[in-house]
Amino acid sequence: MQKILKSFILIALISILLVLSFVLLMFQKTSTLLQKPPEYLINTLSSIDKNNPYQAKDKINFILLGLDKRDDLLEKTNTTDTIMFVSVNLKNQKINTISLPRDLWFYNTNSKINEIYPESLTKTNQPEYIKDQFYKLINQPIDHVVVLTTNNLIKFVKIIGGVDVVLQNGFIDNQYPNPEYIKNPNSGVSKYKTIEFKSGLIRLDESNITEFVRSRKSSDSVSGGGTDLARIQRQQLLVEAILNKLKSGQIFNKNLNMFEIYNYWDKDIVKDLSDLDVLQILTVLGEGVSKLTLNKIDIPIGTNSKNGVIYHPNTFINKQWVFIPSDKEYKSLQQFISDSLYF
């Protein structure tokens, strides 16, 4: 059981996929095919292997969207703060993750890429719209979309008993939205509160995980913990910590409720993955599951179009602070991503 990687992020999806498959196979919970006699199950699993759409692929690609929906006096938004492209390379058993800055400008929609999700809510086929837009942006086919909310993250970290991360640079944020004010604006409490994370080993659980991944007002520099880029780095730390804990088998030393994990995946997470999709993906991975490693890829960010794949143009676009690509067709970004996926 320790050979099965379970849970995939904020958060790396592949682990959750494997948790689901484990629960389906071992506990025969809700999947209708597992309600059948054993001979039917054997025939069905055989057909999965024969008619597996992932069999001919060299990688399986996901778009992972982190949604922090706000509708309060401080902010009203349905945009995605976390946008991650995740590619599972089936040849070298690597989970490649590339965080796309939410402020990256997308000329196709004349908006930041964090507007793709709220725009998809107006479409008949929401997942296909998201896949199509990100394909145009990064020139990589998208197999599946997973949307995680802040509440999803809190619940997941609670289920696995928290994780430890090592933060190189501590930070203080004096402008973090105060949950008490949001709950009751007439309570007299301040709109914002101060949060602090010191450098070194940090225990993340349901009490502080949201603050850790959301804060971006601590300073004007990445090293100071401020900006969206610093937030991306912390989110990557979290992903790595979750994966390491799952691979170590630490969570299996406790009475982990597998039904709780399955219900979490089945009921709480918005995705276009069926139980059959998960079983087919697991079949393709085979023994390579235990060899999967995480490879974090950072997009080169420059000061101008000549020294970075993307850069901040030192001016607003549509009155918004943005990153733009070094070329308007996104060719440099697309080539960088393509080259990075096969190392």
The run of helices and strands is HHEEEEEEEHHEHEEHEEHHHEHEEEEH
Outline the low-pLDDT stretches: 1-38, 220-226
CATH domain class name of the domain at 13-159 and 255-340: Alpha Beta
**Could you tell me the number of beta strands?**
17
How is this structure best described in words?
The chain is of the alpha+beta class. It has eleven helices and 17 strands. The strands form six sheets. The protein has a six-stranded mixed β-sheet with strand order 13-8-1-4-5-14, with helices on both faces. The protein has a three-stranded mixed β-sheet with strand order 15-16-17, with no helix packed on it. A two-stranded antiparallel ribbon has the order 2-3. β4 (80-89) and β5 (94-99) form a beta hairpin. The radius of gyration is 21 Å and the shape is globular.
